Amino acid sequence: MIWFYIFIAFLAIVISLRYNWWRKSESLAHARVLMYHSIDTHKGDKFDKWRVKPEDFEKQMAWLYKNGFTSYTISELCDFSKLPKKAVCITFDDGYADNFTNAYPVLKKYGFKATIYLVPNQKTNHWEEKNTKYVSCMLNEDEILKMGDLVEFGSHTMSHLNLERASLESVKDELINSKKAVENLSKKECKAFAYPYGKYNDDIACLTKDVGYKNAVIVKRGLFKSKDDKFTIKRIGILGTESFFDFWLKFHKVRNKL
Length: 258
What we know:
- It is a single chain.
- 36% of the residues lie in helices and 17% in strands.
- It is of the alpha/beta class.
- It has one domain (35-253): Glycoside hydrolase/deacetylase (TIM Barrel, Alpha-Beta Barrel).
- α6 (168-186) crosses α7.
- The longest helix has 19 residues, at 168-186.
- The radius of gyration is 19 Å and the shape is globular.
- It starts with a helix and ends in a 5-residue tail after the last helix.
- The model is unreliable at 9-14 (pLDDT under 50).
């Protein structure tokens, strides 16, 4: 019998390490900025990490809706002097066509707004060719315009460039040209920016502000609070290889595991 109790204790420790249910929940007075990429079926390669299955995405959005959360675009969120409780921002990096076919109908169903960071005028996500044999199509102008009722479009540079590896002159060109390109596609001001790969430094953040953006997001895990720097907004990454329980833990406790 003692071995049974030892096994149960061991199992409890393993589960507690894998699922950090014991962490203190974060206040709902702080906003959750969720980071998605592709909403698509899995292909059996390592890019599935960034592909959230359509049925999983709907389950997550349904949970937010049933639990009384309100979504805002990232620029709306940044305009609040005091954040409303249960505020959520749903963001998508890169601008995959499946954001229109698979995510947009779900957003519309629940009345949720979102922000999509475009790599404008790119037909595929060719920068991910090392991670997948299944390059994806990107949003076209017609799809972008149709989504304008619920979606704010931001920039993710012209070429998905790692900005830390580029000269400041090249960074400035990417920032300015992609802002103009997004505005041409969406027919609205482009206020929002996402650093590709989450790579930035103080000079890049200052330059992003100087050329006319109003906010920028990173990939570092965390919540958004009223007094936070608007050009280093933390997000919660939602992965296609994790369970709904992982989503729930991340939403409430920011971390789902050690």
